[in-house]
Design goal:
By secondary structure, the protein is an alpha+beta fold. It folds into two domains: 142 residues, no CATH class; 61 residues, no CATH class. The protein is 20% helix and 22% strand. It has four helices and five strands, in the order H-E-E-H-E-E-E-H-H. Strand 1 and strand 2 form a beta hairpin.
Length: 234
């Protein structure tokens, strides 16, 4: 399928709501260092966020992660005595929109950061635990441009979008090269040279595997008999 045909097919699926539930947009009335009122529209199922280091790209991605159900960005962004979260400019919050099948229209949901107290059992006793970085849905914020809930309904807020999220942070995943080169302590392997020498010898086999389109490397360790070469398409 040609690239343009593929894009047209995806747009058609989106228009016919066959990709629902689908995040239509996200906006930030007050969130970290993002400009107040920033809005990002997701007009296509694949979105790339490009910018310089420190531009809050990760902040946007973590907010998107925190949209569905019980997902909380408190997993990534939390306050400490050394690095407290300053909310003098207003409570941290973000708003997102999606098509709500019950309402049969696009709606908005707001998630805010609050301090919440939980009770849990510890050695048979009820112990209260405070979480200053808890995120939950709230009533529509009129000051943030959200619509009021319908008068004929009994609900105070729309349900959160239901979507499975796969969040991959490459700062937590170290590549095999970096793990070996920067963290590896292979004295036995390096008895006759340096790490660079070992990598050069190993990459010769990788190069041959790629050039000959082999299914397995030309040389594998005895613990890597199940290793297979997978060619990824662009």
């Amino acid at each position: 399928m040609a690239k343009q045909d593929l894009m047209d097919t995806i747009r058609k699926l989106l228009k016919e709501r066959k990709l629902e539930p689908y995040l239509k947009h996200i906006r930030f009335p007050c969130f970290r260092n993002l400009e107040q009122g920033l809005r990002i529209d997701f007009n296509f199922p694949l979105t790339a966020i490009v910018g310089q280091n420190g531009g809050n790209k990760s902040s946007v991605l973590r907010a998107v992660y925190g949209c569905p159900g019980n997902n909380s960005i408190g997993k990534f962004w939390f306050s400490t005595h050394v690095d407290p979260i300053d909310e003098h400019g207003g409570r941290s919050r973000f708003i997102y929109g999606y098509y709500q099948p019950e309402a049969k229209k696009d709606v908005e949901v707001i998630k805010t950061r609050i301090r919440k107290t939980f009770e849990r059992k510890v050695n048979g006793r009820d112990v209260k635990r405070k979480d200053p970085d808890y995120w939950e849905t709230a009533r529509p914020s009129i000051r943030d441009g959200m619509e009021r809930m319908p008068k004929e309904g009994s609900k105070t807020r729309w349900k959160t979008i239901k979507k499975n999220v796969l969040f991959m942070d490459f700062r937590s995943e170290i590549s095999a090269f970096d793990k070996y080169f920067y963290h590896g302590e292979l004295k036995r392997t390096l008895s006759d040279g340096t790490k660079q020498d070992f990598i050069r010898r190993s990459y010769k086999n990788f190069r041959e595997t790629i050039d000959k389109n082999l299914k397995t490397p030309t040389r594998v360790n005895r613990n890597q008999n199940d290793f297979k070469v997978i060619h990824l398409t662009i």
